[in-house]
Write a structure and sequence with these properties.
Blueprint: E1 4-9, E2 12-17, E3 22-27, E4 31-38, E5 40-45, E6 48-53, E7 57-60, E8 65-71, E9 78-85, H1 87-95, E10 110-111, H2 116-123, H3 136-153, H4 157-161, H5 172-179, H6 186-192, H7 197-208, H8 212-231, H9 235-241, H10 247-258, H11 262-267
Antiparallel strand pairs: 1-2, 2-9, 3-8, 4-7, 4-9, 5-6, 5-8, 7-10
Helix pairs in contact: 2-3, 6-7, 8-10
Length: 270
Amino acid sequence: MEYQAKYITEDIKLSCYPDRFFKSDIMFEHHMLIWFISGETKIVQADGTYMFRKGDIFLIPRNQLATIINYPKDGLPHQTVVMHLTTEWLRSFYENRNVKPVMAGEQKIRHYNNHPLLQSCLSSLIPYFEMKELPADIAQLKITEAVSILRSIDPGIDAMLMNFEEPGKINLAEYMEKNFMFNMPLEKFGYLTGRSLTTFKRDFRKAFDTTPQKWLTQKRLELAHYQFVEKKMKPVDVCYEVGFENLSHFSFAFKKHFGYAPTALLAGRG
């Protein structure tokens, strides 16, 4: 079965991958509050890898690159409730409250385990997904409830939610060295480093003396080699975590670059 989603509004959905593995490289346009009903998710970011399972509640900050790998588990689909906290909504929320501006906080995934207040708020949405008509203000009330709970249990959350700035021009070389494993369009890399596509390509060549695609492929293959040799990882896991979209393309590119297939490294473990 294919991916399924039910919506209360475009900002609240019940997401389901019924019976298959799913992988995507993505940049989150909005903060996302997620409650896990079943299945597993591995999220790979530049600062580390996160695993989430049934009952977990976590908040993913916007404008962050990540590889998302979803798995069914124990015969159950990968199913989550997802709430988008958009910049437009958050601006309106904070305008009506006397909250002093705070320094922008660290933009990392925040994990709330199965906090009873958040779990009660998010699980209460389940019946709404079966309704054909819903009063328009109900969804807004539920988002307000969720954000109010976050602010009561996480003293540092305002620093993340009140940061409405768009990415500014940053050091391109440093950013790419940290984020090369994410298979994103060059336009996205440009946006996240504060550049147009044309300026990104020009600055990239100045920094690395080659084209983005050649450099990205080489860096991803070198990381793959390291994962095989040092971490003893399986080809299917390495393939997706270093930015390739399918195993056959990865194996072909690996052999072309190194002169031998990934299986040669596996055979040498003996």
